[in-house]
Amino acid sequence: MLLLAMGWVSAQIGKPVDQLELALDAYKPLKTVMGYFAGQDFRFELEERGGVLFKVTGKGPLSETNIPLASDLIGYASGYGEGMSGPVKTFFEERIGELTDKGPTPLGVEQYILTIDVTGSEAPYMIEFSLELSEIDTSLFPVGTHTLGPADAKHVIREFSDFQCPYCARFVNTAYEGIKNELLARGDVRFEYHHFPLISIHPNAFPAAEATECVVAANDPDAFWPYHDNLFARQQAWQGLSDASSYFVRLAEDIGLSSEGMATCLAERQFADVVQAAYDAGVQIGIRGTPTLYVDGYKVGDYSQLENYLTLLDLSEKFSQE
Predict the structure, then answer these.
(1) What is each CA distance from 235 to 162, 205, 219, in whole angstroms?
(2) Phi, psi torsion values for 21, nearest 5 degrees
(3) For residues 17 and 46, is the Cβ–Cβ distance under 8 A?
(4) Same structural domain for residues 150 and 299?
(5) Which residue from 30, 35, 52, 302 has the fewest beta carbons nearer than 10 Å?
């Protein structure tokens, strides 16, 4: 999978279709019952759901005339504008041949999936693509055992995280507090933490995840959250230790939790299978890095901004109307 990443502007998917029509006005698209026609035999369709734009598809020869059109269509539809259309145009001009006859190929673009199918032996190649929010069937998510908010919440924010990951610590210092203080206060949102320790680069991440389970066993399920918060707050203190077990035990005591049985729990690795199962479940649904967050089934792009969660909560409401 190729990856394109760029700064966030304002998304068009999730907004009224006429906004994208206006953005593409320079190409003078002709609207018909079969979709929109513009450029050189290029057709695209704007799929609506819940009264807003849900998905964009396009098809036609990738000629010199159509490359700017297709690039801008993708850029405007994503909401990244020129921040995306520029790199996409370069890709179309210089590298699109790499995908010839390989079938539909997904390109990760922040919270979107851009799927491209290229055919032809030489330029101009024929191209067919679709752009939509990256979405997972919520029935595929593992059951959340560490949760905040009502069990029957209409919406669920799921985080797949690694206690040694600096970006996960950044999330805790940014949007996490807003999620707890603002979104959970709505009464219709639940937050779930899922272990996903990246042991190839974070050797203490797996033991830290085990320590949280040992803390819960020594106390109660609610003990997970203060321990979680302090693991991230003190990440610098334990991440480089050759054996962090004694630190994890002391941490529980320092924050007023019982550490009874923790040393044995960690030494015998009583919860290694629990953490491994959580990691394996994440791999099965395609998690590759941390933190990865979803609002219901939709992947969050910039996880540090609370407004992105609000946007996806709104879109989840709208998209579920159909």
Answers:
(1) 11, 10, 22
(2) -60, -45
(3) yes
(4) yes
(5) 30
